[in-house]
Every structure is written in C-alpha cells, then in structure tokens.
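Problem: given the chain below (291 residues), write out its structure.
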Amino acid sequence: MTTPTAPAPAATILDRRYDFVLLFDVVNGNPNGDPDAGNSPRVDPETGRGLVSDVCLKRKIRNFVALSAGGAEGYDIYVKERGVLNAEHQKAYDARGLKKGDKGAPDAARRWMCERFFDVRTFGAVMSTEVNAGQVRGPVQITFARSIDPIVSLEQAITRMAVTNERDAEKERTIGRKEIVPYGLYVAHGFISPQLAAQTGFSTQDLDLLRQALAMMFEHDRSAARGLMSTRRCWAFEHESPLGNAPAHRLFERLRVVRRDAARPAREFGDYDVSLDQQGLPPGVRVHEWA
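Solution.
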C-alpha cells in the first residue's frame, strides 16, 4: 500500500456525489459493546437485530488511516486516544499567528484544521470549545449498521489463573464473563457530499484512502473481544451530478441478502446469497465494487 501524499493546492477536490453500502460480519465476537448494558453487544430490543454505531466504524477508519498514512502531512488524526483537542486548536492559532478574539480567527483556524487532519475534513468536527476553531460539517457520513437477522448474545464464563495481589495468591481461580455473537452479518450505509467536500478540501486522494479503509479496517483491529470481523462487500454508487442522479434509498434497495437455509441459523458468510442488481441503473449512476 502506498503512503498518501499531503493534499497540495492542486489536489482534485471531489466534485460528484457518492453513496455506498458496506457489509461486514462477526464470528464469535462482540462487534460493538454498549456501555449502558454492561458492554453487551448492541441490539434493537424491538427486532432483536444487532447494531454497530457509526462512531465505532469511524474509529476503525481513523485507526487505519493513522497506520497507513505513516504520519504524512495532512493525514494526522484529530480524534485519537488521549488526544487533547484544545491543544490541537492552539496549534492552528500558533501556525496562523492568531490570538483569541482576533476577527476571523476561528475561520482561519478551521481551515488549518481541515488541511492538517484527515478525519476533520472527512467526518467534520465541533471545535468551538475553549480555543475556538469553529465547526466543520464533514462530507462523509455513515449510518448505524444493522444485522440482517436477529442476533443471539451468548454469555460465556472465563477463568483467570493469576491474581492481582500477593495477598490473593491462595484464592481459587477467579471467574469472569464475556458475551459473544456466534455470527452476525451487518449492513451500513454511507454518503459523500461534493458540496461539503468543497468546503473542507476532501479530495479524490482522500476518497481513495477512505475506500482502502473500508476494505481493510478490520484487518488492523483484532482483539479477543471482537472475534473475527471482516469486510465482506462494499459497493459505491457514483453520480455524474453533484446533486445526485437518483435517491440513495432507491439505489440501496438494489442490494439483496437472502439466507440460503431459513430453517437453521447462519454461522458463516456462505450461509447467505448476496447480490447487487446492476441492471437498469438510473442514467448518470455507475457502480464501483470497493471491497
């Protein structure tokens, strides 16, 4: 994989709309725990279908970009572990020679933040805090993912051989618990606005990096808790017109996911037939297979 270069003044700003649909699955893992429910897998209580938040997916994209970009200028990550956001805003003020209270300072700082941080010019950010760097509405938006079928959360007992303190050395092994989803196939939808890309500087190079991230983000996010997670399919609808040539929901309805044997629960991706109807697409719409 090549390391992306920093956006230059001649960078090609994205000038057309994209809508995309992402399919990913989990095997024997917790794809996104809910802190309000003891970190159990997120679920829609009315349907039993599993959920994965948009924040979770964007975190994985950010992590992939941080790994793949290798610190290249213009590809830093704003929202990162232990990051101090106001300190980043202050860097924008220092770089532009700004002071608090200067007329137009938040707008100048906002432009610097978009140039420096991939996730700011992609997803946007609220930076109007103590050190005011304005607000950015990002061109890339992703929905919550929802599983195709209801999920079953299995609670598993686990034991620990070691103890934390010497005074507990003679105690019996401690027992803990973890919850897993035996199998779940999830669908998320995404939208890319050229109008907002023009405001943040989101370029065709950024789009290519986003495409790579959607295909590879689970490959660098392994943990025992998450089991085996994989991107299975990702299709993007490219519109000739910046305003779009068809409603997104009509394009998404072309996706067909059918369980091959409804009499038994799905336990692998091969238990589903997945297809995208590409016949008779609306004029001005093309399909790209991103994964």
